[in-house]
Amino acid sequence: MGRITISDVAAKTEAVNEAPDDFGRRFLIKTGLAASILTLWQAEPSWALENRMSNNKKHDTLPAILTMNDVNAVSPALAHYTEGPLLNGLWKRPKLSPRDRSVVTVAALIARIQVIEMPYHFALALDNGVKPAELSEIITHLAFYARWANAMSAVAIAKDIFHQQRRRDGAPARHPRTKVALGRRSLAGSIIGGIAETQEVIDFCTARNITADVEMIKPSEINTAYDRVVNKDVRYRFVIDMEAKA
Predict the structure, then answer these.
(1) What are the residue ranges spanned by the domains of the chain?
(2) Count of Cβ atoms closer than 10 Å to residue 118 Cβ
(3) Is the pTM of this model over 0.70?
(4) Which of 1, 29, 150, 240 has the least CB density, counted as fewest CB within 10 Å?
């Protein structure tokens, strides 16, 4: 439908000048009303505004996984019950395997649209042996038995979890995310190697009589050695001779 301009209105008005005055006035009023409606409509339809707002909200960030530290900071009692009776109690019962418990829990969360728990339990399900294809099939199955919107909410969470899983599978080492987080552990590395590499170097040097330049001191000389370090009067590493008499 084209735009109606003031010129068009004037032309139509002139065309009906020979008609009775009432007809001309009615035509002018109808035409002006139509022009106003078209002007409001063509500014930005409601569906276009909705699409623009939806596009502005899209992002690629991973949904935040609520950690036990987060819960403990807000509600220490809830963290206690979550970590104790729930995770270390119910989840450890032998009648159901951790994998089966993850399947049941994931299905319940999707059916009830418990989005806040989905990232954690989707990741836990993968750690417990549920395959991404199986999790995908659970979502599809529940679209028919729960709600379509429930399944779509799960898809929005699972897509980022799957993306993270693919990135993790490409890494040289795999560590269960949930077990590390709930156990309050951290991972660290060093470019100089660990205990095994250090022992290998020591054995190599011992076999070839390779020694280090050190300065042996008695336990009673520790304070003097410290003062020398502060004054930068040190050439070799200090080694305390524990067998020496004070």
Answers:
(1) 6-57, 68-182, 195-240
(2) 21
(3) no
(4) 1
